[in-house]
Write a structure and sequence with these properties.
Mean pLDDT: 95
Bound molecules: acetyl coenzyme *A
Order of helices and strands: EEEEEEHHHHHHHHHHHHHHHHH
Largest sheet: 3 strands, antiparallel
Low-confidence stretches: none
Number of strands: 6
Strand content: 5-15%
Helix content: 40-55%
Distance between the termini: 57 Å
Length: 434
């Protein structure tokens, strides 16, 4: 009769073990029972880069990478992108349900009233070099925020956790916009509490001498859609960083500075910046085939293509492509779009990409939209971090109350030297330090 167990025979000893299977997984600590000799530590699983290891139970986001499915709390991403707002989606991600009308009004009001930052943050921003990368400024200012809210260290207090979550969601657009204004040598714009979340962000980014900045409604909605699409993506590199750092019980500002640093890398949130640089380097549709050949030869990767989880078209990429069309109606067509479309066409037909299941990911088109909105490429990872704040916080909130979690502490397979004796400096041989 079928049972939910895995039978294992250790051929070193002939011993047999029954390992329980729950939710399609075995508990890795069960392997510890498998020992070759008394005093043996027990078997470990070796999984560099966590290719097949679940680090938590989570009810936030569901992805089926083979089928190209993404859902927040059960709601398909396309329905949210079409009908929701970023703040409503953030509420859903954090608390598990869509808000009622009254809850949404209260939530939006609370976020709106936490958008201001301490005046000292302005001085902190001003201390950066004129050409500082806005993502470096953003990461640093997140860490700095923890010093303004020392009570945030009380991570076991649910009221504190909730308040800090609201503060973070509300303040990240302000930090992001100020980082941008700094890079342009423009005066910082304070939040306007009468505007929507995205309308206020666009105002803090682009307002000049006008008394009130009125964003184009199409662009405001496009940004809303981009924010919804980027809100969470389960246990990716930065969410894992957020959970891992948070598992030390540090305050969420410090944990989020670490998560944002993870997002900065070119293989993660920095990819949209890399895509734009790549499209600009190709420059012309005629040069696409030659570029693809170089990718296939292993000279470099096609940025914005491939995903650890999606082995099908990234569902967010589809929506972003439609959003791009709406944005270009207002801003005019970005000439690099033709290069992107040609790259996608050739890659989707090519055996190299087909056999490796490499499809455009969320970042392939998002950079083109950001550029159309007038943003420099260095701002792209910052644009990703604004909405991902709600996802990081949802993952963190889930992790800090999970009784199965402890401080994150992976094991290692030690492959270094055995014990040896200290040698006098004159007796040592030079080492080639790489
Ligand atoms: N261009 C060319 N070849 C690629 C690409 C790419 N973009 N991505 C993967 N491959 C190839 C690899 O060379 C490898 O080929 P091989 O089997 O012949 O050696 C195969 O596909 C599998 O690649 P892995 O590196 O094992 O895949 P992994 O799951 O580790 O990587 C990643 C996923 C990092 C996203 C990768 O596809 C990549 O580097 N893409 C470009 C960067 C990018 O767009 N990142 C954004 C991801 S989305 C996000 O973070 C929001």
């Amino acid at each position: 009769m079928a049972t939910d167990t895995l039978s294992v025979t250790d051929n070193r000893t002939g011993a047999e073990y029954e390992i329980p299977i729950a939710d399609g997984a075995i508990h890795a600590t069960e392997l510890r029972k498998i020992k070759a000799a008394d005093g043996d530590f027990g078997l470990m699983s070796y999984d560099p880069a966590f290719l097949n290891t679940a680090s938590c139970r989570s009810a936030v986001t569901f992805i089926d990478g083979d089928a190209g499915i993404l859902r927040y709390r059960g709601y398909p991403i396309d329905q949210l992108a079409e009908r929701s707002t970023y703040l409503e989606t953030a509420f859903l991600i954090l608390f598990g349900e869509l808000p009622t009308k009254a809850e949404l009004v209260e939530w939006a009001d609370e976020i709106t009233h936490h958008t201001f930052v301490h005046q000292n943050m302005k001085q902190l921003m001003e201390a950066f070099r004129y050409d500082a990368h806005p993502m470096g400024m953003f990461i640093s200012s997140l860490a700095a925020l923890s010093t303004f809210y020392p009570e945030a260290a009380e991570v076991d207090d649910p009221e504190v956790r909730l308040l800090e979550a609201k503060r973070l969601i509300a303040k990240v657009p302000t930090l992001a916009a100020w980082a941008y204004r700094h890079s342009r040598g423009l005066p910082y714009v304070y939040p306007d509490n009468d505007l929507s979340f995205t309308g206020n962000f666009l105002s803090m980014m682009f307002r000049m001498a006008e008394p009130r900045y009125a964003a184009d409604p199409t662009l405001e909605r496009a940004l809303e859609v981009l924010f919804i699409l980027h809100a969470d993506h389960e246990q990716n590199c930065s969410a894992s960083a957020m959970r891992s750092i948070g598992s030390s019980r540090v305050d969420p500002y410090s944990a989020m500075a670490g998560a944002a640093a993870a997002l900065y890398g070119p293989l993660h949130g920095g990819a949209n910046e890399a895509v734009l640089r790549m499209l600009a380097e190709i420059g012309d549709v005629k040069r696409v085939p030659e570029y693809v050949e170089r990718v296939k030869a292993g000279d470099f990767r096609l940025m914005g293509f491939g995903h650890r989880v999606y082995k099908n078209y990234d569902p967010r990429a589809k929506i972003i492509k439609e959003t791009a069309d709406a944005v270009f109606e207002v801003t005019g067509r970005n000439p690099l779009l033709d290069v992107a479309l040609e790259l996608e066409k050739i890659a989707l037909e090519d055996e190299y990409f087909v056999s490796r299941k490499l499809y455009p990911n969320v970042d392939f088109y998002s950079g083109l939209i950001y550029e159309a909105l007038g943003l420099p490429t260095a701002m792209f990872p910052v644009m990703f971090a604004i909405p991902r704040t709600s996802g990081w916080l949802a993952q963190w909130l889930e992790g800090v109350v999970d009784p199965e979690q402890k401080i994150a502490r992976p094991r290692q397979v030690y492959v270094g030297a055995d014990e040896r004796n200290y040698t006098a400096v004159d007796d040592r041989r030079a080492v080639a330090v790489a």
